[in-house]
Amino acid sequence: MAPEEEVDYNRLIQLHQQEKRGGAPVPLVADFHDRVRDFLERLRASYDQERARDPSSMRSLQLADQLQKARSLQMDIINLRMRKFLLLAHQTLTGARVDTRAFTPEEKTVFQELVDRLCAGRNWILEGGAAASSTAGAGGPSSPPAKCAPPDGFGPEPVKTVPVEPSPVPDRAGPPPSGAAVDSCELVVLRILEDVPDFAMGEGVVACLRRKDLVALQREMARALEQHGKARPVS
């Protein structure tokens, strides 16, 4: 991600797809998570403004849907990266060194805490809970050593380096396919009763609805068309 690149909905979709492929965590700029929060705040403000004008308008429904999906993407991206951090932290138990340059400052802090906890827990089990607690103090396994060294008597461990290759960055992704995890909205089949002016449905998709068309739309959007007498549900 370039330092000057702004976070938007398509960028979140792209990053989500990259993280789902596995491999190393995708390199992020230091303030990436701040940018995501700023984007969500702007999106929320746009939704509130549109909702105040007309809560049943197409634009209001589109913004509400996009806000919900963007929040889900934010959570999924963090969860996917946390899983990778946990796997990398586990590798440090065998002396591996992990390159954390792809992590944000907050992620580096979380990663170090994972390493410390895993190391302390491993040593606590090796020495026996009572023995480890006597050396770790009242905190027991919650008082981790500065480095993940094995307890005395368990021998040195080989040191190896685990290279962290950045994931390939594809072209900017379009919207996820129908039925993707980020789209949890129920679809309703409608019969269009009269021509509807073309309107944007988000992510570069333009809806062209004509009289007698049969279409499947998200429930809230379908309800808006039905309320305006433009369509009726097909049972």
Report what the structure shows.
- With 235 residues, the chain is an alpha+beta fold.
- The chain has two domains: 9-162, Methane Monooxygenase Hydroxylase, Chain G, domain 1 (Up-down Bundle), CATH 1.20.58.1030; 187-233.
- The chain contains six helices and seven strands, in the order αααβααβββββαβ.
- The chain has a three-stranded antiparallel β-sheet with strand order 6-3-7, covered by helices on one side.
- A hairpin with a 2-residue loop joins β4 and β5 (205-209).
- α1 (9-20) runs parallel beside α3 (58-91), α3 packs across α4 (105-127) and α4 packs across α5 (129-136).
- It starts with 8 loop residues before the first helix and ends with a strand.
- The model is unreliable at 134-146, 155-159 and 176-184 (pLDDT under 50).
Distance between the termini: 47 Å
Summarize model confidence as the mean pLDDT.
78
Tell me the overall shape: elongated
Percentage of β-strand residues: 5-15%
Determine and state the CATH class of the largest domain.
Mainly Alpha
Are there runs of 5+ residues with pLDDT below 50, and where? 134-146, 155-159, 176-184
Count of separate structural domains: 2
Total beta-strand segments: 7
State the strand order across the main sheet: 6-3-7
Helix-strand string: HHHEHHEEEEEHE
Based on CA atoms alone, the radius of gyration comes out at 25 Å
- Per DSSP, the total helix count is 6
Considering DSSP H and I runs of 4 or more, what fraction of the residues is helical?
40-55%
| CATH-defined topology of the largest domain | Methane Monooxygenase Hydroxylase, Chain G, domain 1
CATH architecture label of the largest domain: Up-down Bundle
